[in-house]
Amino acid sequence: MAWSTRELADLAGTTVNTVRHYHRVGLLDEPDRRYNGYKQYGVRHLVRLLRIRRLADLGVPLSQVGVVGAGGENTPEVLHALDAELAENIARLQQARADIAAILDDGAPADAPPGFASVASHLSEADSSIIHIYSQLYDEEAMADLRRMVEVDAEAGAVGDEIGALPADADEVTRQQLAEKLAPSLAQNLIEYPWLSDPAGHLSKSASVTRQTFIQAVTELYNPAQLDVLARAGLLAQELLSAHRSADDDASPSVRHTS
Predict the structure, then answer these.
(1) pLDDT of res. 47
(2) What CA–CA distance (Å, rounded) separates 196 from 189?
(3) What is the pTM of this model?
(4) Positions of the chain with pLDDT under 70
(5) pLDDT score at 32
(6) Residue 203: phi, psi to the nearest 5?
(7) Do the bridges between strand 32-33 and strand 39-40 make them parallel or antiparallel, or are there none, so unpaired?
């Protein structure tokens, strides 16, 4: 029994182009030809093609199919590496499914920052954009803390909405009032998450890259009035933090050691 290229491909569940590609890369021997020039594939070609397809289905790169198929010494190493890669892909897909479920449950935008689906509706376009950027600058622990901050702020009120809607030419009184509204939550964040004052231990990029990226991002994402409010609120938050620390120091009883 002899098969044509198309018949062989059909038997193996693949395509003629794939069979030809295997010929080109040296994985499948060229068969004899009939008197009219047509190829004649036999059982050994079918079995070889099926073995190649089996390894390819497992994810073995074509460049290593020959060695793995021949049972080379590094076959276990190749398979272990492949297994590790598949495990990473499975974890990534499972996370993607979990993210999709959260997006659907919360009615969040599909492009909401990872892990922020539940609060995405409370984020302005600028805030959502900056969180996307933060996810590339800070580690997972820092991002988890940031998510908790956003959740608390979302429950506390609409200060973020007011800042998001602030026009670039907002007057002095409005700016100061918004800064004073925002400052307490910023101060509370500094108390609960001390690393905010010194984030070096939570950076996934260098300090210089993080600083440059942050400065460029905020100056493009927020208008001058919004930046002014954020700067004022930051200064007021530092004052509140200092007052809090002083109060703690005053309230701390002195410890005396007696012999």
Answers:
(1) 95
(2) 8
(3) 0.71
(4) 1, 155-158, 250-259
(5) 84
(6) -85, 140
(7) antiparallel
